[in-house]
Design a protein that fits this description.
- The chain has 21 helices and seven strands.
- The protein is α/β, with parallel strands linked by helices.
- The protein has a five-stranded parallel β-sheet, with helices on both faces. It has a two-stranded antiparallel ribbon with strand order 6-7.
- The chain is globular, with a radius of gyration of 24 Å.
Length: about 475
C-alpha cells in the first residue's frame, strides 16, 4: 500500500521543514547554543543518564524564543539522523490543521513511514491504515496505539539493539496553541458544553505519556509550550517521574544571545544604508536588551520595525527607544506592549488597524472556511474595505507585525509573526484604547451591507461568491 491515503490526513505545514514554516523563527547563528546543545545531547544520549527521562518539557514565558529553539533543534536532529518526527502547532498559522489535534498522530506516523531505518515499521503503519481507514476518526489514544505503538511492538519489540538503530527524537512545539476540536454544532445544540482546548491538550499529553511508558517505544520526546495551568499541572502532578523540565531563564544567557542577534541585524542595516560602523552605540544595544527582559520577541519585532521601509533607520531606532521609556509597571510585558502600541500608532488609522487585526485573529474560526482554513487576504480586503485600496492604507507600516501577501496573490492569507501580538490585543489592560470590545461588530456591519446589497464585491475575484454565502450562513447562525 502507498502512503497516499495516510497523506490525506496529515498536516504538511506542521512538519519542521515544511514550506509553510519557511519564515518561522530559527535561532540566529551562535545564539541559544547552550539550550540547543542540552536538548540535542539529551536526545542522543539521554538513555545513558543516571535516571533517564523519556520527556523533556521546554517552557517559559511568551516571547522567550521557544519556537525558534525547537525549530533549530529539529534541524540539528534531522542533520544528525536523530529526528524521528515532529509537529509544530500554531494557533495563527495559515493551516487550520496546525491548530488542532486532528492530524497530529497521522502526521507523526507519516514521517516515520519516510525513514529508511524504520522501513518495517512504516509498512506496518500503512497496513494499519489499509485495514482500518476510519482510524483517523478515533480518539487520539487509540490512534497512538494502533498507528504508532502496534507497529513498533511488532517490528522492534523490546530489543535494545533494534530500538537504538534508528532515529531517537520526537519534537512537538506550541502545544498550548492547540485549540479545541468541537464535535457538536453549538448553534443547533446551545445546551451542549463546548469542549475546552485544555481537554484536548491533556488528551495529547496523556497519549504521549502512555507511549513513553511502553517498553517498545524507542523515542524520546521534546515538548515545548507556555506554562499554562493545565499543562503545568500535568507535568507536575502526573508525568513528573517521566519528565525533565527546562525553563528558559537567565541560566541560558539570553542577554548575551540577544546582543549577538542585534549586532548582526544592525550590521546588515549599516551595509544597506552605508551607515557608520559606530552606529548604534553599545549603550543603545544594551538598553534594547535590558528592555527585552529576556523576551526575544521584543528584539525581533524591534529589528523588523527598524529595518522596514517606513523611515530612515536612525529615526525608527529612536522611536523604538522612546517607546521603551516608560514608568515602572507590574506588567511584565510593559515594554513589549509599548512597542506594539507604537507600531500600531504608525498606521494612518491605528484604531481601525487594531480592530481589523483583532477581528481576523482573535477568533480564527470566524473568518475561515468550513474546513477551518483562513480566507485569502484578497478576500479579507474586499470584505473589510469601505473603498478600494483602504487595506493597503490602513495596514501601511505594520510589516513588522503582519505578513501581507503580494497584490497578485489571491490565495494566501494574512499571517502574524508571533502569537504574543494577539495576546496584546485581547487584553484591554495591555492595549488600552486600541482594545476591540466586540470583535464581531465589524463583521455585523459588513454583513448587513452585503445582505442589503450595498456592499460591492469585485466580479474579478471568482472566489468571492461562495465565500460571501459562507459568511451569510455564519451570520445567520450567530443570531
Amino acid at each position: 500500500m502507498s502512503a497516499t491515503e495516510l497523506h490525506e490526513h496529515i498536516a504538511p505545514g506542521a512538519m519542521h521543514d515544511s514550506d509553510e514554516r519557511c519564515d518561522a523563527p530559527k535561532c540566529h547563528p551562535e545564539t541559544r547554543v547552550a539550550v540547543q546543545n542540552e536538548l540535542v545531547d539529551w536526545g542522543e544520549h539521554g538513555d545513558k543518564e543516571k535516571e533517564p527521562k523519556k520527556i523533556v518539557w521546554v517552557t517559559g514565558p511568551a516571547g522567550g524564543g521557544k519556537t525558534a529553539i525547537m525549530g533549530s533543534v529539529a534541524d540539528t536532529c534531522k542533520n544528525r539522523g536523530l529526528l524521528a518526527c515532529g509537529f509544530f502547532f500554531s494557533s495563527f498559522s495559515g493551516s487550520a490543521n496546525r491548530r488542532s489535534k486532528r492530524c497530529l498522530v497521522a502526521t507523526l506516523a507519516y514521517q516515520l513511514v519516510q525513514h529508511n531505518a524504520l522501513r518495517d515499521v512504516g509498512e506496518r503503519i500503512l497496513s494499519c491504515v489499509e485495514h482500518d481507514p476510519a482510524i483517523f476518526k478515533k480518539k487520539v489514544e487509540v490512534q497512538f496505539d494502533q498507528l504508532l505503538m502496534q507497529p513498533l511492538r511488532e517490528s522492534l519489540g523490546t530489543d535494545p539493539v533494534r530500538q537504538s538503530s534508528g532515529p531517537k527524537v520526537i519534537v512537538i512545539d506550541g502545544l498550548d496553541e492547540c485549540e479545541a476540536e468541537q464535535y457538536h454544532d453549538v448553534a443547533r445544540s446551545p445546551h451542549e458544553i463546548p469542549r475546552s482546548k485544555e481537554a484536548d491538550q491533556v488528551e495529547i499529553l496523556t497519549a504521549l505519556l502512555n507511549a513513553t511508558n511502553d517498553p517498545c517505544f524507542p523515542f524520546r520526546i521534546i515538548i515545548a509550550s507556555r506554562p499554562e495551568p493545565a499543562i503545568q499541572s500535568f507535568f507536575t502532578d502526573i508525568a513528573h517521574r517521566t519528565t525533565r523540565k527546562i525553563f528558559l531563564d537567565d541560566k541560558y544567557k539570553p542577554d548575551a544571545d540577544m546582543l549577538l542577534f542585534l549586532e548582526s541585524k544592525f550590521d546588515a542595516i549599516r551595509r544597506q544604508y552605508q551607515l557608520s560602523a559606530s552606529w548604534p552605540s553599545a549603550n543603545v544595544k544594551h538598553t534594547l536588551v535590558e528592555n527585552a527582559s529576556g523576551q526575544f520577541i521584543y528584539v525581533a519585532v524591534a529589528m523588523r520595525f527598524i529595518s522596514g521601509s517606513t523611515g530612515p533607520p536612525h529615526e525608527l531606532l529612536e522611536q523604538v527607544m522612546a517607546a521603551g521609556r516608560h514608568e515602572v509597571s507590574t506588567n511584565p510585558f510593559a515594554i513589549l506592549d509599548a512597542l506594539y502600541a507604537h507600531i500600531l500608532n504608525s498606521s494612518p488609522n491605528p484604531l481601525l488597524a487594531a480592530h481589523w487585526i483583532a477581528f481576523l485573529f482573535r477568533n480564527t474560526r470566524v473568518f475561515s472556511d468550513s474546513a477551518g482554513n483562513p480566507f485569502p487576504a484578497r478576500f479579507v480586503q474586499l470584505f473589510l474595505e469601505s473603498s478600494p485600496g483602504e487595506a493597503s492604507y490602513v495596514l501601511r507600516g505594520l510589516n513588522s507585525l503582519l505578513s501581507t501577501p503580494p497584490a497578485d496573490d489571491h490565495v494566501s492569507p494574512y499571517s502574524l509573526f508571533h502569537k504574543s501580538f494577539t495576546d496584546f490585543l485581547r487584553d484591554r489592560s495591555r492595549c488600552g484604547s486600541l482594545y476591540m470590545r466586540d470583535p464581531y461588530a465589524l463583521y455585523d456591519t459588513r454583513y448587513l451591507q452585503i445582505w442589503k446589497g450595498t456592499f460591492a464585491i469585485s466580479p474579478n475575484f471568482p472566489a468571492s461568491v461562495p465565500l460571501i454565502r459562507l459568511l451569510q450562513t455564519r451570520a445567520q447562525q450567530r443570531r
